[in-house]
Amino acid sequence: MKKRKKQIANLLKLGVFLFGVSLLLWSCEKQEEVNHGLENEHFGIPQKYFKKKITLKEVLSNEELYNVLEKNFIRSSEQKKVNEFIPYNYILKVYTSQGILFYNDTIKTYTFPIITNLEKEEHSFFNLLFQEYKGKLYVGVIKYTPSSNWLSNKKEKYEGSFELIDKEGRSKKSYASKSSCETILKAFYAPCGCGGSANGHAPSGAWCCKGSPLLGYDMEFSCSGGGSNGEPGDLDGVSGGLDSGGSSGSAQTDPTEAIYTDTALGINKSLGGTLSDSELEWIDTHPLESFKIVNFIIANEDENKQLTSEAKTFAEQAIKALANGGEVDFDDRIINEIKDEKIKCLHDKLTKDGNTFVKDLLANFEGVSEFNINISSVDKIFSTNVNDYVNGETSYTKGDDMIYIKISADKISNNSVLSGIRTILHEYIHADMFRKLYTKEGISNSDIKDFKETYNKFKSENFKPNNLQHESMAKLYVNSMATALKEIHQAILLREYNYLSQDGAKSLDNLYEALAWQGLKGHDVQAYTELSDTKKKALKEALDIYFYSLTKNCPQ
Prior knowledge:
Number of domains: 2
Number of strands: 19
Largest sheet: 8 strands, antiparallel
Strand content: 15-25%
Structural class: alpha+beta
Shape: elongated
Radius of gyration: 33 Å
């Protein structure tokens, strides 16, 4: 008997790790309100626990329970409005309609699938678990990392690892004070009327046993040595043991993966089922961006409700970028994966706060382009064309849907704001050229026609193949680049502009044109070599006078 008592004392419920708060006004009448009609068949003898599906709205209809949750966990008026229960800051979403309740006369344990911002393996998932027991409430999070066997047949007994996560988002495994303590999952099954263990067998044909399917798991915290009164030691958030009115000794749960919302599933279906779990989770936790993705898909479906190939590519990469902290312009089909702070700031100055410099540059293709643009920052870029490190690079593979722009963080960090913006615009012009070269749109568009005629002229005159775009840029874009730099200078660096121009009394046009020629004149382009010596001298003098006075710090 002493040995049995010691075993019981050493078997602690999940409440050992869970955060307990008093649940007042508990009553037998409230217990009786729970629906004891089981969804499973009746097997002749009382079951240890009953199991049913439940929504969070149903859970929170219990006034006493809701008051406790509101006092301790429901932190915002928005959560109150939607009946949301988010106890810890790292929880991004609770799937409120996908809960499971295990209960008997003394215990109610609820499990809801959740999304968190914690690191996890590819197929890992999280559950929020809370339990009512003896007038107290215990709350915790479980992380499951299932085996491939279980993933292929989730009706079988759970295989894989799991760990308890505390309110700070830390794994309980990482700081348990006694290595002799462990958390275990014990499967329990529907019993047979004939008695015996009969766990997990199919219907036998006997009148007294129609099978014993797996119902769920007891999650138990056990220690072979234990502390005083069976306590396992100094775990974070430990509050009492069995002898002090703590938890019941086990928590009933079932590893529950989220069933994604109709929005996430619909987007994934439109993209051919290519999205990962983490991407589906991102969609479910970002409704505003998801709405934009849905609108993009609808706008780019053909008469058979199928996405065009370039729209599918863009949507897939857009979701990946957004899920990793990037930005997306769905109108101009630009995916922004810039990580470098200065380059991101410069790019934002061109595209946000009412500035439309990039949009104006790409306006010829708004709504009809077959091509997408991906812009990112990298540390350094080595160009085999010039055999040196360069400020930026734009690349396109014929037949692809995506044009890639890369900007060198190493180069831009040492450049002025205007020089950095010139680099970004320069690379966008390359992207614009690729669009014009490979578009299926007819040459009735005058800008496309002018560009192709200029490009083909240089090509027919045997200019270097890798320099044809720079030749065309020098011929067609330098003036518009200089004008854009002037407008940008006045828009985002007005104090610097006023100082250098003496409040507009002195022209800086040669400075802007000289900057526009940067990245072109080094390629010995024809348009620059044909400039008069007087013009070249004026451009050089403007750079010598002003270049080192230009600020390097992007204005915030």
